[in-house]
Amino acid sequence: MFDLIQYIFDGLAVGSVYALIALGYSMVFGVLQLVNFAHGELFMVGAYFVMYAISLGLPWHLALVVGMCCVGFFAVAMERFCYKPLRGAGKLAPLITAVGLSLLLQNLVQAILGSNPQSYPATLPDGTVFGFIKSLFPPVDQVTLPQLPEGLFDWGQIVVRHRDLLIFVVAIAVTLGLELFLRKTRPGQGIRALALQPNAARLVGVPFDRTISLTFFIGAALAVVAGLLQGMADNQVTPYMGISSGLKAFAAAVLGGIGVIPGALLGGLVLGIAERLLVGYDLSTYKDGAAFFILILVLLLRPQGLLGKARMVKV
Amino acid sequence: MTVQEFLQYSILPLIFFGITAIQALGLQLILGGAGLLSLGHAAFYAVGGYSAAAFTVYAAPALGLTDPTLLMLLSLVVGALSALAAGFLVAVPCLRLQGDYLAMATLGFAEILGTALKNIDAVGGTRGFGNIPKLSSLPWVFVTLALVWWALARFRRTGLGMAIQATRDDEIAARSLGISTYSAKLSAFVIGSAIAGIAGALYVHAVQFISPDEADFSRSVIIVLAVVIGGMTSLSGSVLGALILVVVPEALRHNDTLREQRMIYFALIVIFVMLFSPKGLQSLFMRFMPKAAQQRGGTR
Known about the structure:
heterodimer, A: mainly alpha, two-stranded antiparallel sheet, 12 helices, 2 strands, B: mainly alpha, ABC transporter involved in vitamin B12 uptake, BtuC, about 75% helix, disordered C terminus
């Protein structure tokens, strides 16, 4: 029994990171009905960016803000140049483009910075395009990430690490903040209006393109927060961290109800706990399949997700 | 390098090209034909490969079959049928879902299948399934490729083939013409999966080994790349795409930097193709061909 409670506590931290990524998927899907397949890569790029900025000597909070802005604008540019021209071209084209973007970012980061998280930036043969890009980054000797608090809450049978608690609290705070933003501010209400009824929203004066850009920006900024947390928790960053976390976060978003903000949080936490339970009960080889098993089960039994409302699709 | 050495060296890449081309042709029917994005195509390939291998390793000795040609033919049938069954199991629930959800559900099934394969000890678990008899060879691969290609080209002109394309172009219009769009999509999906299974059966008996990595997401992405780069709407485009994806890394084997970066360029090409040239590189090549050739091969 204590085992179970312990695993649930352990799962909260992993789940919180999934939740933060899932928020971005959820928001973008809400306004564009597009699965931004490259969203997981924004999380990865964000993790690298913040780590790099910290290694250059920026204090971590400043590095985080700079990272959120830069990756946010990058996501806006991505939408502007790669998704916007394909609006109205059906669902297939943007989806394939997103897969292409995801692949591009993964391999680009690997080419510039190397696949080994320790040797950063990587030793790359010079004289190539990517050698040139690499030379733009000043070299960094030692990669340092801020340390998460080390302590423990020890309640006899159950032990909770301070860092897990911190990650959990950050996720809750961010979700609450986002929900508040979407409900109380004008741009936030614009996003909700667009998600609810795109044409009606435009009629009442919601700036369409700007609102979509804002959605991408916020989603990317949250992914950067998740990237920093994940990077600090694992103490490493790899070019491939985006693909698995990204896919699982998508599963979390669908589980909670895609387009529903608290749903993303709930989905992420449930998924994190489920994975931790599998590891705890000696089924760790099944861990990576769990997210998808849950995803398919939800898609088949309750496609609107745990907290979503079913919407009829009109022809 | 002498001619003989070159030929010897080219056999394996050519086999890989043929197998990738068969996979791509299968996905072309699903992606270009029916307009459904399957991000788990490699899973059906792995299902076909694993069951064909299990057939020749476990079932064939029990049945007393020894003739290699017969065995290979049977294993192709086993591969195709098992992948077809797997495709059916995935498609029946997933085809109720639309676009993006379908892509994710197929991806999810592929990941689950990979996880399951890692946990089945009879087929080697994470170590992979080895010691498979060598039954297929370059001629097998290319004859099968030609047959699949020919059959798919014929299939397009059948009623069902047309129904599949109509469903892709406008589902509502197709339905109001009395086409059962669900069964059109379902048949595209299962036939495409069966073709992937054939590719899997050829692969395991050529390389004599298969591991759960073959069901990996990255393998599925390679097939999607082949279909999209070549041109989603044509069969020759898929073969061209497979050729590009297999030959380019081989041609670059003396240039490690470029070889490692090849996925960057492939990804860029895919984005470029989607944004500016949705008919793929095949249509670009067509532009430079003589008029007569265009009229013969240019239509879909």
